[in-house]
Structures are given as structure tokens and as C-alpha cells.
Amino acid sequence: MCIGGKSVRIDTINIEGMMCGHCQANVEKAIAAINGVSKVEVDLSGKKATITFDPETANLDSIKKAVTDAGYKII
Ligand SMILES: [Cu+2]
């Protein structure tokens, strides 16, 4: 996929351990802080996050690590 001439990847990861809006905000913040991530949407009840990122700058492993480091679990 391509947006504005840049290649973009959209991936969804499943996250366990989010209990409230605070957790949701924590995860959002952790993912948004990663270089190359342009958009993140965390679905609290659906236990998932949809991330739009530049695959040349960011990668799924670092995104998953940020979530784990924030105290949540990737499933
Ligand atoms: Cu919480």
C-alpha cells in the first residue's frame, strides 16, 4: 500500500491485559512514540491495536516490544 508516495504498512496486533481507558492510552502512547508509526488505533474491548507505519523505518517487532515494555502482553 502507498500513501503520498511513501510505502505504508497496516497491521493489527492482539493485546492482552488492557483493562480501562488508561491502559488503552498507555498502549497508544507507547506505539505512537515509535519512529515511523503514523497512526495507531487501540480497540480496548476488541483487545487489539491497528498500526499504520512505514516499514522502512519501523517494524512489527519493535512495535510489539513497546507494548510488552509498557506492561501488556501480545497474544
Ligand atoms: Cu487500565
What this model shows, in words?
29% of the residues lie in helices and 36% in strands. The protein is of the alpha+beta class. It has one domain (2-74): Alpha-Beta Plaits. The strands form 2 sheets. Strands 4-5-3-6 form a 4-stranded antiparallel sheet. A hairpin with a 4-residue loop joins β4 and β5. The longest helix is centred in the middle third of the chain and has 12 residues, at 21-32. The N and C termini lie far apart (25 Å). The mean pLDDT is 95. Copper (II) ion is lined by residues 19-20, 22-23.
Number of beta-strand segments: 6
Major sheet description: 4 strands, antiparallel
Please, what is the average pLDDT?
95
> Helix coverage percent of residues?
25-40%
Low-confidence segments? none
Which class do the helix and strand fractions yield? Answer: alpha+beta
Would you tell me which CATH topology applies?
Alpha-Beta Plaits
Q: Spell out which ligands are present.
A: copper (II) ion
Query: How many distinct helices?
Result: 2
How much is the radius of gyration in Å? 12 Å
Integer tally of domains: 1
* H/E element order: EEEHEEHE
Major sheet strand order: 4-5-3-6
Overall spatial form: elongated
Strand content: 35-45%
What's the end-to-end separation, in Å?
25 Å
Q: Please state the second-level CATH architecture.
A: 2-Layer Sandwich
Q: Class in CATH?
A: Alpha Beta
